[in-house]
């Protein structure tokens, strides 16, 4: 038997150590016991509070929460899918690091694995992994709290590695690696990133298909494709519960088709076009890939005390505290593009230069599919700035219209550009390559990238005016003098020049380094070290602009982010187990902090019910406006039918005050009669002026459910809630005749079941979003239970699939060990 060769494993051990050192050096507050403050995770704490409390108390998954938007499934909030056993490997790959160090370490590790599979020298692979992982966007999303997105990005590279391995004929290991990492990718639960990964795989697959036809290797290609299909099936089946539930629920959300006929030009079969493209990268803004502050940097960026704004304030006799205030939060903001708010996507001057070099020196189909994916990513990120192209994909690419914020697709470029750049270095470090050709390629890439930087160093105003689209509106709103706005515009120009010079210097150093390597004036091992230092120096400083030590605070503050206001405390004294609260001291429909204490009319989520969003637009906003004018709820029928028992609003001193709504309809009520309407348009229109305690508005599609019901109700008829849980509501009712009851609960047909005296009974939709039932006369027990079959069946399938995959891996490893011993013997 061969002896263990420590030196053969040394590069891989060193890689792990380097990745760990860089990660912890970036997140030093973690070593002090601090935790990161993330805006979206603060929102998550609110939206998931009811779910977490119920899970802690009962040990069960509620699968539904009433804490946001009147009620919604918990699938995309905080549901745990424990049957996917592959998911436990995530802790191994992130070596148990605390958040967010675990995510950054995964960035490093995943890309390192891909480069090893692509036969890149391990030392160079370390360099490439650092170049990929430190892309600014990957840290910006961590700052914002987009953890599932960051998690999914971390698994993109190893999935591609598994596909490449399979295409090379390593069918078993390639298939297993693909299945495992794709399962982890899907479990990260960010379908948009997984979709973009699928686009990368599709483009690469097309390139492989063309090569298989050219080189007459079509049969091996089909075999590889078959293995990958099986791997994908296993990855899907291990995550079938979440995928199936999301697919089922998605049809009813804002990502599903609307039943309304209004605004047809803006509608797709998924999200509305305007909503999808609200965040669209400017065509010129693409230059941030090379020069981070090309468009002013982040919308929340700050200026120094030596900035043009500071100088202008001082010259206009403003005190130093005013100078600090305005430079700390410039108005208008430094970012002058047309996105609502953003931070620039910067892949690094070194990586950008290497990518251009790769377009020249890398040969074969890999270059072309990487270039195609990069260009596609950039052009689709332009969104409404290249609407003809975007609209084609929204109309014809299945599933593309389900996702918003098209700028996110730049993650493809952030994957493909470092990959091609490292493949370029692989060629440059190959001593068998022609030195003259390599030098010529180096010159061309150097002149292109340095030329771009030089243009904006010397002539920044040639193509740009630094005037933001909202500068005038800011000036009017805040009554800003012209000199102040002009000073900020001058600072935007200075930021561009400074960063262009910065990128120029990094490219210069990289170009000189590669020249030394080509002509063997510097040993390769030293070149690797210098490259790592250059990339770290380039990216660390930019990443720290968006995510730094100021983002960390004590663990206790992170774990307990909310303190109830006097208004909250007043409301929490109410013993009623189920009612709703509207909080007007925040943007109610972009806020989940209210959900931490109450069941909220509003919330914060990208997959709310489509009908609820339409109710917000057509009814709730109108009622909010009416309440704000009159401070009474006599004419707020939609809020009343949603059982909005309290409204929090700011008093004259901007302090939150709780207004008790005496007109709230309660948990359920009997109505006198029905108004049947033809369709959704008529149904939502009927809500503009109706009395929910008297009439139920019902679409004709539910006419059969009204059989046995005659108009009217007896004064003695009553219905009341006796116990509440997010997934079960127990009522008692008493009625003289058959009655029609409306419930202030959101209607969702995929899982909610009704039982009268433990026997199933039908329910249907009323008042656009609520539940209704025809109840037989007498005194009875009525129970609503949320028991979706998709969860029960999905978890069984997931467990079986996980076990099969794990057993297959174990058998394969045992077979490899035995086969290796046999060969050695």
Please, could you describe this protein's structure?
Among the domains are: 566-657, no CATH class; 668-787, no CATH class. Helix 6 packs across helix 7. The strands form six sheets. Strands 11-12-18-14-15 form a five-stranded antiparallel β-sheet, with no helix packed on it. With 825 residues, the chain is of the alpha+beta class. It contains 31 helices and 18 strands.
How large is the count of helical segments? 31
Proportion of residues in helical segments = 40-55%
Overall geometry comes to globular
N→C terminal distance: 7 Å
* Poorly predicted parts: none
Strand content: 5-15%
Q: Number of DSSP strands?
A: 18
Structural class, please? alpha+beta
Strand order of the largest sheet: 11-12-18-14-15
Mean pLDDT across every amino acid position: 94
Q: How would a textbook summarize the main sheet?
A: 5 strands, antiparallel
Radius of gyration: 30 Å
Task: Summarize the topology.
Elements: H1 6-26, H2 28-31, E1 35-36, H3 39-47, H4 49-58, E2 64-65, E3 72-73, H5 89-93, H6 101-117, H7 122-133, H8 136-144, H9 147-154, H10 156-167, H11 171-187, H12 191-214, H13 218-238, H14 240-250, H15 273-276, H16 308-315, H17 320-328, H18 349-361, H19 365-381, H20 387-396, H21 410-428, H22 435-458, H23 471-478, H24 482-518, H25 524-546, E4 552-553, H26 555-559, H27 566-572, E5 580-583, H28 610-630, H29 637-641, E6 644-650, E7 656-660, E8 668-670, E9 673-677, H30 680-686, E10 695-699, E11 718-725, E12 728-735, E13 739-746, E14 752-756, E15 759-761, E16 764-766, E17 770-775, E18 778-786, H31 789-824
Parallel strand pairs: 5-6, 9-10
Antiparallel strand pairs: 1-4, 2-3, 6-7, 8-13, 11-12, 12-18, 13-17, 14-15, 14-18, 16-17
